[in-house]
């Protein structure tokens, strides 16, 4: 590997020397976790300590089987104090003779001592996430050189430990980002600061060494076509400014990330000595006090998320491929911003944000502690030098949640030519109110009565299945409507589960510290992913019903900042849903309406005349690049129509009744049903194959089972068993109807026991060990909570049983157990028996068993409560909270259900009607899969 690298770069020197004014690189390591180079290595403590072997570079040594794993909250004094000793031999290309040669480390955790041929390259570098370099020109020899690096996981500088390592994230050690040599001529460019404004004014401040005559600037667009004319200026000092105005540049934004390449050349005696090329974007960021953040003159709402540099198998060592995958998933959720939590990212991540379009908040580390001022000054400048020209960066953040060294604040404005706004996350600072995890009502009070720009840099903490999608609709509605809100950033993007090489490859989230993501550790999509995707869609579709008078018109709101909806595409599909088979459909496109940003208008879909013969209408919006924004579904047929088609009432057989003092025993068409004569509950259902293990219902949840005084009578060919209504003692009523076909109808009219209820509905018993799968018609495929209803599609869904819990191994989604909305019917496929349940009522929730409860904090805020029993049919379900908030503080949708009618008037009772098919024809069998 070492020889290949040297030969490759020597060939570049030999054949490209005339064009070699660009800074040249020779990688000593690989470029990421998918491209590494082995170095000699010894770890002083922990796993595999005390012996020389090899380790891939870049990497974190824990993930390679060395040292000790520890999470930031771990207080053991001896945790995370190992050192790593590295050795690597390299040869410098002969073509680099008389050049200035630096060795560059893009990231090393934490204190890093570098020697070349036994001599120190410079002071020990303290701080993990920053690009640092040493001039090693005088330390190199011809032929083979020896690089020795000593990395101390625990810093000798306590302020570095306070800022970086006593934190709510995994603590790693090692050279985790690339290492390379760079070659520059003695006369060279040291630093370039670029400011390209939306008005076309391009300004660069160029620092040089070695003496030269002038600086020349050339711009080319993304297609390689020259943009404007080259321009030059004489060099009068070590730092020279140059300015030029360009006409009508294509502006950079998250929606249209137009990039140019600026090549700055250093010229001496008419010859180009050195060149540096930078990707830039023309854009202007402006903060208007007590108003908002403007990009290119447009007021922004940031739909953001916090993101760690992390991958399960490699810790903080990532790759450009991972950066692309992360950004694409964020864009898929219709996000337009990302916060670097809580340190600067890999350079390739910022490159991807530049090219794909995400606004970035770049952050100097400081979780709750701070760097001391000398150390922080050095690290802040390293961050600025490396990151300053990325157009995606529109904010700087000085630390997090109290980790703000205020003595560093002035440096951001002094060092940044663009004067981007500085944020103190979790503080009211610099005109921004960024407080984390405020309850909904507190936040709304600030929205309505405060004076600062509101932009929480963390909100809706997504531990396990709480937060993120749960509550976001309420928060976003408030944020969208308030002119002083600039949006906010969710916590956080992906579950921080690390592969434990000391525990047979187990994925470890350190209990409830790490499972905070919208996606799993390997980017598995959770239910909240799709809720966010819908809520944050820049095309907002107003709710409407598919009534007979529907004319194909949808009212839209354009929530883009820079895109007219006529730049999007709209597709529709009518579908007839059929269980187990491909459904018939018709599809087409609708003309995209001319709706400017922040305006409303109408989309006209020209549907065929037979559109009402279909079950559902899907409407898909795609962006300028052809990416799906969201697909909305609109049921056309209602449950009553489905029930009329599915439920069979008549048959050649008759209904027979036997009764004694305790039970009614009813038979019809090979189905035997047993009802308790006192309570009215279903005790047993039996067919030719045997007993169907579904029984003991309906049991009212948050209501009283006061069904009394049952009677049995015939109604034509049907048998009716019903309780007697009494306002004082039996105000809840239950009626069973057995049809000659063997189908069973249940009608319950009931009143909740309290005004405020967590949930209301009916429970039945069914052994979880018996279930194999379900197939149902309704919204899916993910489960819902009362405060996370969006993101689902109406269809027919097949789901195999699993016992997955969100954020826990094996990150299997969609989960099986939980609530499902808008059920029309469901077929329960058991291991031995199956049965079907149908409703003719709208808005029925299906509850499948009780998910295991993940370990909450001591405050038990998530409160993922479920009814009694095993399978339920609900009129109202529970919400879920977050790590920091109870469900009811996440907004109105998180509050309990409210029912006011307690005069026990049966005309005002809640109504649940279900039909049951216990015949052997219900059995489908076989392995099922998710579909719609």
Automatic annotation (TrEMBL):
It is an enzyme of class 3 (hydrolase). InterPro entries: B-gal_small/dom_5, Bact_Beta-galactosidase, Beta-gal/glucu_dom_sf, Gal_mutarotase_sf_dom, Galactose-bd-like_sf, GH, GH-type_carb-bd, Glyco_hydro_2. This is beta-galactosidase. Residues 1-20 form the signal peptide. Pfam families: Bgal_small_N, Glyco_hydro_2, Glyco_hydro_2_C, Glyco_hydro_2_N. Its EC number is 3.2.1.23. It catalyses: Hydrolysis of terminal non-reducing beta-D-galactose residues in beta-D-galactosides. Monomer. Residues 187-283 form the Glycoside hydrolase family 2 immunoglobulin-like beta-sandwich domain. Residues 285-504 form the Glycoside hydrolase family 2 catalytic domain. The keyword Repressor does not apply.
């Amino acid at each position: 590997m070492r020889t290949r690298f040297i030969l490759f770069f020597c060939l570049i020197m030999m054949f490209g020397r005339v064009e070699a004014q660009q800074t040249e690189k020779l990688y000593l390591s690989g470029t990421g976790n998918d491209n590494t180079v082995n170095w000699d290595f010894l770890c002083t403590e922990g796993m595999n300590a005390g012996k020389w072997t090899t380790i891939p570079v870049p990497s974190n040594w824990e993930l390679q089987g060395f040292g000790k794993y520890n999470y930031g909250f771990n207080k053991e004094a001896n945790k995370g104090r190992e050192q790593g000793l590295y050795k690597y031999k390299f040869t410098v290309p002969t073509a680099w003779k008389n050049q200035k040669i630096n060795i560059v480390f893009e990231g090393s955790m934490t204190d890093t001592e570098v020697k070349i041929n036994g001599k120190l390259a410079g002071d020990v570098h303290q701080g993990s996430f920053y690009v640092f370099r040493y001039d090693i020109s005088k330390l190199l020899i011809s032929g083979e050189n020896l690089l020795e690096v000593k990395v101390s996981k625990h810093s000798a500088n306590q302020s570095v430990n306070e800022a970086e390592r006593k934190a709510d994230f995994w603590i790693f050690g090692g050279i985790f980002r690339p290492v390379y040599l760079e070659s520059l001529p003695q006369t060279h460019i040291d630093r370039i600061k670029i400011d390209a404004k939306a008005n076309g004014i391009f300004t660069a401040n160029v620092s040089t060494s070695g003496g030269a005559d002038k600086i020349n600037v050339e711009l080319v667009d993304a297609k390689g076509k020259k943009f404007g004319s080259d321009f030059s200026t004489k060099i009068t000092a070590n730092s020279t400014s140059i300015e030029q105005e360009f006409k009508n540049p294509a502006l950079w934004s998250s929606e249209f990330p137009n990039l140019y390449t600026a090549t700055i050349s250093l010229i001496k005696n008419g010859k180009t000595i050195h060149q540096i090329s930078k990707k830039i974007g023309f854009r202007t960021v402006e903060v208007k006090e007590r108003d908002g953040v403007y990009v290119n003159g447009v007021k922004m709402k940031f739909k953001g998320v916090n993101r760690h540099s992390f991958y399960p198998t490699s810790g903080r060592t990532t790759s450009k491929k991972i950066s692309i995958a992360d950004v694409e998933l964020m864009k898929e959720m219709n996000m337009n911003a990302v916060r670097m939590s809580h340190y600067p990212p890999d350079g390739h991540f910022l490159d991807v944000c530049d090219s794909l379009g995400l606004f970035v908040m770049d952050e100097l580390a400081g979780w709750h502690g701070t760097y001391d001022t000398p150390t922080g000054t050095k690290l802040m400048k390293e961050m600025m030098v490396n990151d300053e020209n990325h157009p995606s960066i529109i904010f700087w953040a000085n630390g997090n949640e109290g980790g703000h060294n205020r003595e560093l604040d002035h440096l951001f404005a002094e060092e940044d030519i663009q004067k981007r706004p500085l944020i103190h996350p979790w503080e009211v600072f610099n005109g921004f109110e960024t407080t984390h995890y405020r309850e909904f009502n507190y936040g709304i009070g600030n929205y309505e009565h405060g004076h600062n720009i509101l932009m929480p840099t963390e909100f809706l903490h997504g531990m396990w299945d709480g937060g993120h999608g749960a509550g976001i609709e309420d928060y976003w509605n408030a944020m969208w409507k308030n002119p002083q809100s600039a949006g906010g950033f969710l916590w956080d993007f992906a579950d921080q589960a690390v592969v434990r090489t000391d525990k047979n490859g187990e994925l470890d989230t350190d209990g409830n510290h790490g499972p905070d993501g919208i996606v799993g550790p390997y980017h598995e999509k959770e239910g909240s992913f799709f809720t966010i995707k819908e809520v944050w869609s820049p095309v907002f579709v107003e709710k409407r019903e598919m009534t007979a008078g529907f004319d194909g018109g949808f009212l839209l709101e354009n929530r883009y900042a820079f895109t007219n909806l006529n730049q999007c595409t709209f597709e529709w599909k009518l579908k007839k849903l059929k269980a187990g088979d491909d459904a018939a459909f018709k599809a087409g496109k609708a003309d995209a309406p001319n709706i400017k940003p922040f305006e409303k208008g109408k989309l006209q879909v020209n549907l065929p005349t037979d559109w009402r013969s279909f079950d559902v209408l899907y409407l898909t919006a795609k962006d300028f690049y052809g990416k799906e924004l969201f697909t909305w579904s609109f049921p056309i047929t209602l449950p009553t129509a489905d029930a009329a088609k599915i439920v069979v009432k008549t048959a050649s057989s008759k209904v027979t009744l036997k009764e004694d003092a305790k039970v009614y025993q009813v038979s019809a068409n090979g189905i035997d049903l047993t009802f308790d004569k006192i309570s009215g509950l279903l005790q047993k259902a039996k067919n030719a194959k045997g007993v169907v293990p579904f029984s003991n219902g309906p049991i009212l949840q948050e209501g009283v089972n006061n069904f009394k005084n049952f009677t049995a009578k015939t109604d034509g060919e049907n048998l009716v068993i019903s309780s007697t209504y009494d306002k004082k003692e039996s105000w809840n009523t239950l009626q069973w109807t057995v049809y000659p076909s063997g189908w069973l109808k249940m009608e319950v009219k009931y009143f909740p026991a309290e005004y405020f209820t967590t949930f209301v509905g009916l429970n039945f018993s069914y052994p979880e060990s018996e279930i194999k799968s379900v197939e149902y018609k309704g919204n899916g495929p993910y489960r819902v909570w009362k405060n996370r209803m969006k993101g689902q599609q109406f269809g027919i869904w097949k789901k195999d049983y699993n016992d997955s819990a969100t954020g826990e191994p094996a990150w299997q989604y969609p989960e099986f157990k939980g609530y499902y909305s808008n059920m029309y019917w469901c077929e329960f496929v058991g291991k031995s028996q199956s049965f079907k349940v149908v409703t003719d009522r709208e808005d029925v929730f299906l509850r499948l068993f009780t998910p295991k409860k993940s370990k909450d904090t001591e405050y038990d805020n998530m409160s993922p409560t479920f009814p009694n029993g095993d399978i339920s049919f609900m009129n109202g379900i529970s919400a879920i909270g977050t790590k920091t908030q109870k469900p009811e503080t996440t907004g109105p949708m998180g509050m309990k259900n409210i029912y006011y009618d307690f005069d026990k008037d049966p005309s005002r009772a809640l109504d649940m009607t279900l039909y049951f098919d216990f015949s052997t024809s219900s059995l489908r069998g076989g392995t099922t899969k998710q579909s719609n």
